[in-house]
Q: What sequence folds into this?
């Protein structure tokens, strides 16, 4: 409110007084009215001059806090107050819905305090958690409520990117410590406490040293991004090492059906492939390292054994196909790395020939026989059908040019049938489940954990991947045009992933909404689109 506005308000108040005095004069009679009117006029002019002289002087560019019936509104921050038709609440907290929340969520995502997602106008638990971490980093009261100070700090052009350091406490610290433990920089899971102390600082500095980063002991943008990158160098058993510990791990991997070569104690490419396959089936981060968490899972009585079947793909599939080819069950031209019907038929013939249950799946017993020296060769060249291709077509669907983002309008995703319909039904059954970072179900999810869980529920044995990992999933048909998406596809956008549903909609675990939601494939999805994957 400027000085001019203030004066005008005071004039309006004086005019009200004038009207009241005039009415009183009329009631008292004509002569009295003239006297009252003259007195009122003189009083008005004198009071107006006096009031204008005593009003607090405000600089032309200074913003005076606006008022609401309940008190002051939030102050102006870069014109924010002028953007909205409805008043901004004094304090934003859980349960509030207001357009400013959308802007705040986007800002928190840009600064690394929230996972990337389509921002919303709802202030939920995920937003509150991000605000608390922001407040912690900026020495504000950690109440998760956005008052004037927090609002101004978040929207400030000088706001700093997320960084965790010694002395911090919170769920974000627990996540960082868990990853440091997985990578071998923290020696024990008992050090995963949620409190950033000396041990965590030392672990961060060691990780930074090994990976060529500045050793400041803080988890900033570069360190955080590297923690979850496939390029991160771990402090654990890895490629090139040779020891009895490696040998013991190899023997266990072979026992579970993951190793296709003879254990020799040397950590080579075959061990990396086996470890990754094991990690993918046992809810571990798939990085190929034998870290503490992977070793615990590997030696557990609950370790899930390997089982390769129709629809799988990867280096392990290619190794199995090579073994089948050497024994005469599969033509060399069909060694593609994709487990199609030709491979399945070859496995069935191998199983029948070697006295195994012919289910077409490469489980522990089949793998053990394949890698044994006494496996029987094929009695004759097996007849394979040519009507079904043993590999997947990885070109763009719908004739769209690869690399094109296509139309930014909502795609006509159509309806779904078969496997796609089942996937959407499973996804829909989890609507409303809370968003929890790193959770893979069954009652809470993050975006990639939601896709992982849903696919496995409908029989698609997909290993857990982060949203960045979904950029190069490889085994499915790649959709490079946003307008070519259809129901049942997996949509990958910058920092986020979801399941395409019918009618131009998507089902995803949304950090912005704080839960699993069913919403429109809006322009946000089009603008952030990277690719889609057609599974059915």
A:
């Amino acid at each position: 409110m400027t000085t001019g506005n203030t004066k005008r308000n005071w004039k309006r108040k004086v005019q009200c007084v004038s009207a009241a005095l005039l009415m009183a004069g009329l009631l008292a009679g004509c002569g009295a009215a003239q006297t009252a009117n003259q007195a009122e006029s003189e009083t008005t002019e004198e009071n107006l001059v006096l009031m204008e002289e005593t009003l607090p002087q405000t600089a032309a560019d200074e913003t005076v806090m606006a008022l609401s019936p309940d008190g002051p509104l939030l102050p102006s921050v870069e014109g924010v107050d002028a953007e909205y038709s409805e008043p901004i609440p004094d304090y934003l907290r859980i349960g509030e819905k207001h357009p400013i929340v959308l802007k705040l969520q986007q800002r928190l995502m840009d600064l690394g305090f929230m996972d990337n997602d389509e921002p919303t106008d709802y202030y939920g638990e995920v937003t509150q958690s991000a605000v608390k971490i922001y407040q912690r980093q900026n020495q504000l009261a950690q109440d998760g409520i956005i008052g004037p100070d927090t609002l101004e700090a978040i929207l400030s052009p000088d706001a700093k990117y997320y960084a965790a350091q010694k002395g911090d406490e919170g769920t974000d610290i627990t996540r960082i410590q868990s990853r440091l433990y997985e990578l071998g920089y923290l020696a024990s899971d008992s050090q995963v406490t949620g409190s950033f102390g000396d041990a965590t600082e030392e672990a961060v500095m060691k990780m930074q040293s090994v990976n060529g980063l500045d050793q400041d002991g803080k988890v900033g943008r570069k360190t955080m991004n590297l923690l979850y990158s496939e390029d991160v160098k771990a402090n654990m058993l890895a490629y090139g090492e040779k020891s009895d510990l490696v040998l013991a791990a190899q023997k266990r991997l072979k026992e579970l059906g993951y190793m296709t070569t003879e254990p020799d104690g040397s950590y080579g490419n075959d061990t990396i492939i086996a470890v990754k396959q094991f990690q993918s089936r046992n809810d571990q981060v798939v990085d190929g390292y034998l870290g503490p968490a992977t070793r615990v899972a590997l030696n557990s009585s609950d370790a899930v054994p390997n089982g390769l079947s129709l629809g799988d793909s990867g280096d392990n599939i290619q190794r199995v196909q090579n073994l089948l080819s050497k024994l005469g069950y599969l033509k060399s031209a069909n060694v593609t790395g994709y487990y199609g019907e030709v491979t399945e038929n070859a496995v069935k013939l191998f199983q029948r020939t070697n006295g195994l249950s012919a289910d077409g799946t490469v489980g522990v017993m089949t793998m053990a026989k394949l890698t044994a020296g006494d496996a029987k060769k094929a009695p004759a060249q097996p007849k394979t059908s040519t009507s079904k291709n043993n590999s997947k077509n990885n070109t763009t669907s719908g004739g769209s040019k690869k690399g094109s983002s296509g139309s930014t309008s909502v795609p006509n995703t159509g309806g779904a049938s078969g496997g796609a319909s089942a996937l959407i039904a499973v996804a829909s059954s989890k609507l409303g489940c809370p968003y929890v970072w790193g959770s893979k179900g069954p009652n809470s999810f993050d975006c990639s954990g939601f896709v992982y869980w849903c696919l496995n529920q409908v029989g698609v044995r997909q290993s857990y991947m982060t949203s960045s990992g979904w950029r190069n999933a490889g085994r499915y048909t790649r959709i490079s045009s946003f307008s070519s998406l259809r129901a049942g596809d997996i949509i990958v956008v910058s920092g986020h992933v979801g399941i395409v549903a019918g009618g131009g909609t998507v089902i995803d675990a949304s950090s912005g909404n704080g839960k699993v939601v069913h919403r429109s494939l809006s322009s946000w999805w089009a603008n952030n689109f990277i690719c889609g994957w057609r599974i059915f």
Observations:
- Residues 1-76, 384-407 have pLDDT under 50 and may be disordered.
- The chain has five domains: 3-54, 67-75+84-155, 171-227, 244-298, 397-534.
